[in-house]
Write a structure and sequence with these properties.
By secondary structure, the protein is an alpha/beta fold. Helices cover about 50% and strands about 10% of the residues. The chain is globular.
Amino acid sequence: MIQTQGTINSHLGLIPGWADRKVGYSEQVGTQLKWWSNSFGRQNRDCKTQMGPNLLADKSAIQMLSQHELHRLFAHFNLVTCNVLLVEILGDLKKWKDDEVLSTSEVRRLAKKLSGTRNCAPHTDLVLGDLLGHNAPMTGQVPLAGGRRVSNKDGIGYFFDVSPENKAILRWREGNFSEAEKELASHWRDLTGAIDLEAFQREHKGKVRKFKNLDNLHRYICHVSHPTDTQSRRRLLVLVLGTLQVPVEACGAIFSRWEQMNGPDIEKFAPYAYYCFKVTQVFKHAVITRLVTPRRTNQVDMNYLYYLPFCQIFCSGDNFHRDLVPVFLRDNQSFVHADDLKKDLRQLNDWYGSLTDDERRDRAYDYGGYPPIDEASVTYREWRKHMRPWSLGSGNKAVKMTKEENDALLKEIKEKMQTAGIDW
C-alpha cells in the first residue's frame, strides 16, 4: 500500500471562526469527543410522518440546481452538507483575483442555496473519536458536532443550536466575510493549485499492481488490509495513523487502547477510521494505475467519499464521483447523477404547479413529503428504496392546523424548551 499522506485532508476542518465548536483531542487522554449522532432522517418508528432520505451533495450538484429546484429538493429530501463543500464554496472568494465583486457574488449565490442544511461533523474529528473508542455511525445517520444534553419531565434529549457553519453561511449570503475566511480562501486556492497528481503518478509508476477495474482494486485493498498476525496489524495501524494525519499527541492513547483489546483487526478496532484509510488507498492506487484521471480536482473530490457513510443518497455531476462512489456504497445507498435529479425536480415542480393551492394543501395533509407515484421519477424511486411505504396518517397535519391549534403548540414547545433551559 502507498505510504504517503494526503495533501489537503487536514485543512478541511480548519475553518476560522468555526472553532467555537471545534472537536479534537483533549490533553486529558481518552476524553469523550463532543459530537452527537443525530438520527436525522431515520424516523422514529412511532412517528408516521417521514422527513425524507438524507441526501449528500457535492459542489457540482449545488451549482447545477436552481433555487426553484432546490425548493422542491428540500420538500422531499434532507440536504446534508460537509466541510469539503463549504471550503470549496469559500475558495470561490478568490476565484477571480482581479474581480472581487464577481467572486463575492458567486459565494453569495451558492450560500443562498444552503439554507436549512445539516452540516456533518468534520471527518478528521470523527476519525479521531473512532480511534479513541467513540465510534461514528455508518448507517446513514448524520453525526452533528456539539449538542447540549437537556432534560425535562418528559425525558432526556440533546439540543443542537445553529451551528457555527450555518452561522457562517448566513453571513456569506449577505457578503460578510471575516479576514480569516478571506485568508483561508486564498490559501485554499494556492493549496489546490499546487496539487500535482501527474507527478504523483510518475513517481509511483510500476510500484503497484494493476487492476482491470475499480471493483477489483477495492477488493485487493480490503484483502491486504486485514492481516491476521499482531505485528502486521501493528504496522498497518501505524500506516493508518500516518495516512489520516492523526495528531501525534493522540497516538499513545490509541495504541494503548488497541493493545488493551489484544491487537484486533483494524476494521473492528475503528471501523470509520479504517473506511477513510481504505478510501485514500483506493484513490491513490487508482491514480497510479490510471483507473481515474490525475486531474487535480479529483484530490478534492475524493474527500467527499469520507462522508458517504452518513447519507442514503449521494448526488454529484462529476464523472469522477460517478465512477468511484459506487465502489464504496452500501447496498442500501444510492448514487444519483445531478443531471438526472435536476430533470426530475423540474418535472415535479411542473406537476405541483399544475395543482391549485387547495389541492397542494390537501396533498401535503394526506401525503407529507411522499412524492407522486411515478416509476420514471428519480425522487419516487429513491423514496421507495429508502423510506417506509406510505400509510394512512403519514401526511403533514400541520398544514391544516387552526390558528388556535398552532398557538397552543407553540406555547407547549416554548414551555418544554424553557423547562430544559433552552433560550426561546
